[in-house]
Amino acid sequence: MALPFFGKKPAFGPSPQDRGTEADGRADSLQPPRTELSSLNFAGADASHALAQVARLVEVQESATGVGAACEEAAVLYANGDIAETERVLEAALDDPATIAGDGLWLMLLDLYRLTGQKQRFEARVLDYATRFERSPPPWADLSPQAVRRSAHAPAVNLSGRLSAQAATQFQQIGIIGRKSGAIRIDLGRVRGADEAGCALLRQTLSDLAAARVKVALMNAATLADILAAQVATGRAEARDVWLLLLELLQYGEDEARFEDLAIDYAVTFEESPPSWEARNAAETDERIEPQPAEVDGDVFRFDADLVGAANEALRRLAAFASERSEIFVDCNGLRRIDFVCAGMLFNILSTLRAQGRLIALQNVNAMVGALLRVMSVDQVAHVTLRD
User: Fold this and answer.
1) What are the two backbone dihedrals, phi and then psi, of residue 231, each rounded to the nearest 5 degrees?
2) Vertex 248, ends 243 and 251: CA angle to 5°?
3) Looking at the structure, do residues 159 and 243 belong to the same domain, yes or no?
4) 359-365 and 327-338 as β-strands: parallel, antiparallel, unpaired?
5) Beta-strand (E) ranges in 64-197?
6) What is the mean pLDDT of residues 361-387?
7) Is residue 187 located within the same domain as residue 120?
């Protein structure tokens, strides 16, 4: 589920059939308003001077329509790598009876817990979030650097589109890769649907890998779980493989509460015992391999790890990638933190691309990075959506 960042955003650009008629006059209309922050030059050798200027210019103010003083202060602290103080500011704001906190502040704290691997603190807060906003909270996932390093050695496979019987060959390849390496990461973040045959194939693949003692990490399992949840209904005894895959995905996502509720619905619907809860552990290794900060996957540019420092190769690669495209999609699912210098350089790159009539989307941004992008006005020149 992609959440628009802090309020309603305009639609992301015109449709493909309309772009040709609008291209001529778009550059002027897309030029963002200039601000003190956006006028700074982070691209040269004088990055430290630019950073000093930013520190003076960022002024945290109360605002009824903005991200709020606590959100801005926490974003600044996190950008500087001060995790303990970031956590203190967010917790103090949420625990203050005088604070009327929207879900943005809560999502920042929950994401901070995930980014630092604090599962107990996450679980202590997540029920309050669900009760306050009457919606499903983000699922737990250990996004800390240690967890990322533990699974970084396993080969990754991205599934996309709609899963059906036509994907049989792809699932066979997944099995071959997993058995060969002993571990595999399967990213479900781009799957947009699945029929019963596709669910059966994925279930069988996971079963075969487990039988071969292959360690499996399912990434973005909650994305597919939400899609499948809309396809089942209590009392309608059909699509058994959809039900069973949904239960398995909830185990990979460590969502035990939702699993137990669905297991009861399954028992009522099919009049048989549901699968038992079993935590599915991600692939682990003792190797210490840092993920690359950026990579290209087809037509999508991907940020990973942390973006810090003036001499940032990932941002240079983004500029080269974007120079050949009119629409630029950047997957930030693996991006943990971005500092002020890189945020300023990113603004300069994206504002130039926007002025040239190019359309930019930063997708799957964590709430902590998203808050900084708001502070630095990056959301003025790109469409920013938060991840689950």
Assistant:
1) -100, -5
2) 135
3) yes
4) parallel
5) 156-163, 183-194
6) 93
7) no
Higher pLDDT, 180 or 205: 205
Q: Which domain holds residue 85?
A: 61-133
Q: What residue has token string 């500092």?
A: 339
Cα–Cα dist 128/298, whole Å: 40
List Cα–Cα distances, 12 to 4, 110, 302, 321, in angstroms.
11, 27, 19, 20
Whether 76 and 18 map to the same domain: the answer is: no
Packed helices 119-133 and 103-115: angle between N→C axes, nearest 10 degrees: 160
The SS3 call for residue 225 is helix
Largest CA distance in the chain: 69
CATH number for the domain including 249?
Answer: 3.30.750.24
**Count: domains in the chain:** 3
Which residue type does 87 have?
A: E
The pLDDT tens digits for 239-276 are 999 999 999 999 988 888 899 999 999 999 999 999 99
Provide the percentage of residues in the chain whose pLDDT is more than 90: 45
The verdict on residue 185 lying in a domain is yes
Predicted confidence (pLDDT) at residue 26 exceeds the cutoff of 80: no
Kindly report, residue by residue over 2-20, the tens digit of the pLDDT: 443 333 344 444 444 444 4
- Average pLDDT of span 118-127: 91
Give the pLDDT confidence score for residue 50 in this predicted structure: 47
User: Does residue 144 lie within any of the structural domains?
Assistant: no
Residues 249 and 178 in one domain: yes
Classify strands 300-307 and 383-386 as parallel, antiparallel or unpaired.
Answer: unpaired
Choose among 337, 277, 270: nearest CA to 309.
Answer: 337
